[in-house]
Amino acid sequence: MRTWLITGTSAGLGRALADEVLARGDRVVLTARNPKARTAENALTLALDVTDREQVNAVVAEAEKWSGGIDVLVNNAGYGYRAAIEEGDDDDVRRLFATNVFGPVALMKAVLPGMRARRRGTIINISSIGAQLCPPGSGYYAATKAALEGLTGSLRHEAAHLGIRVMAVEPGAFRTDFAGRSLEQAATPIADYAETAGRRRKEHDTVNGNQPGDPAKAAVAIAEAVDAPELPGLLLLGPDAVTAAEAALQTRRAELDRWRSVSEGTDL
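^ thats the sequence. predicted structure below, dont judge the formating
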C-alpha cells in the first residue's frame, strides 16, 4: 500500500485523483486550503496553503508520521490568471508564482529527504498544455507552468539514480472549476489588447462548463502511469492536448529548419 500526498483535493482533478487512489486501496493525504474531510480509514485530511512554507513542512511531517513515508507527491494545487503581459498586476503575478511554482518547490524539497532515505518515490507536477501553446492572455500562467516543467525535468535527471521518478502532466481542457471559480484576471483591461488577450477574459469565455475532458478518466491515466514500470517524463491528457502538442512540435521543427544556417553559423 502506497501513500499519496495530493494538493488541491477539494475539487477538480485533485478530487478525482484522490477518489481513484482510494478506490485502488492506497492511502491518501488530502490537502487543500479548505479541505473536505473523508471518512475512509486510509485517508488523512489536512489544511494546506502551499504558499506557507512552515505549513508545508508541518503537513509533510504529519503525513510521514501517519503513514511511515510519502511514496507519491502530486503537486496539483494552482489556479489560472488571464491578462495581457502589460495588464498584469505585479502583486497578482507574485501570488500566482507563489502558488503555481514556489509552492510545488517547497513540497518537493519537503518530501525529497524521506524519498532519498528510502531510495524510492514518485513526484508528479500538474502543468498545462498552455506551457507549450502560450495563448494570448495567459502568458503569466503559461510562464508558471513552463517554470514548473523546467524544474520537473531537471529533478528527473538529478534524482533518477536515487530511485525517485518525476513526471510532468499537461492536461488539455477538462471539466473542472479552472475556467470558472479558480480563474483570476487583470482588473483593468487595455483596449489595444481587446482582439488578442481580451478575447480570453472571463466575460467572453464560453469554455467553462463545456470542456471535453473527464477528470475521472484523467485520474485513471495518472494512476496507470504511476503503476507503469517506466514513468514518462511528460504525460499529455486529452485529445486536444495531443493535437496541440503535435502542432507546436511541427511549428518549432519548421522554424528550426528555416533558421538552421543562422543558428549553426555562430561558432568561433
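The longest helix spans residues 90-118.
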